[in-house]
Amino acid sequence: DSGVTQTPKHLITATGQRVTLRCSPRSGDLSVYWYQQSLDQGLQFLIQYYNGEERAKGNILERFSAQQFPDLHSELNLSSLELGDSALYFCASSVPGAGETQYFGPGTRLLVL
Amino acid sequence: AQSVTQPDIHITVSEGASLELRCNYSYGATPYLFWYVQSPGQGLQLLLKYFSGDTLVQGIKGFEAEFKRSQSSFNLRKPSVHWSDAAEYFCAVGPPGSFQKLVFGTGTRLLVSP
Predict the structure, then answer these.
(1) Cβ–Cβ below 8 Å for B49 and A104
(2) CB contact under 8 A, B49 and A107
(3) pLDDT tens readout for residues A67-89
């Protein structure tokens, strides 16, 4: 158990819908990262937040957005869902510093039908 | 562009045999290097990481990796594989310093035969 929690574990929805994935980082970790794991794209970095502020963006679609709240939990919002958005979405957290280790949550498996 | 290549999609090893998983990277400077393991239905667990110094890095579960700058490689090794090592292994690179925006390889699935 990494100490990072993600809810829900599974999510099934229809095309065009909007969903919210939630991540609670390890106690004391200020950074939250979101990754998408799909069969065709592999593991890809989406976005990073540090202490409530966006820090880095990766291959995140405009239909996707994220935020980090004052209690440091983070939410990833996916809208206008398409079949290709079906994937495993991971959250990771860390304490920033040279050589920081990212601790990954168990992921949310999203299936868009 | 930054990239990580894991040339072996699947590897089958007999229990008790040695293991080497290959990883090559392309990066502007010497990056920070990581190996993660993902068991079925689980998140990723860090096995080991390299930042600087000794090029042979020891990790958890008896794994080690060697950084070879001249070959841009960071291969993962284990002298004797256990059935519980069956999983998917990912090599990743990140920029030196903080805020590790990781770039992952495509993964190598390890199968362990009795």
Answers:
(1) no
(2) no
(3) 999 999 999 999 999 999 999 99
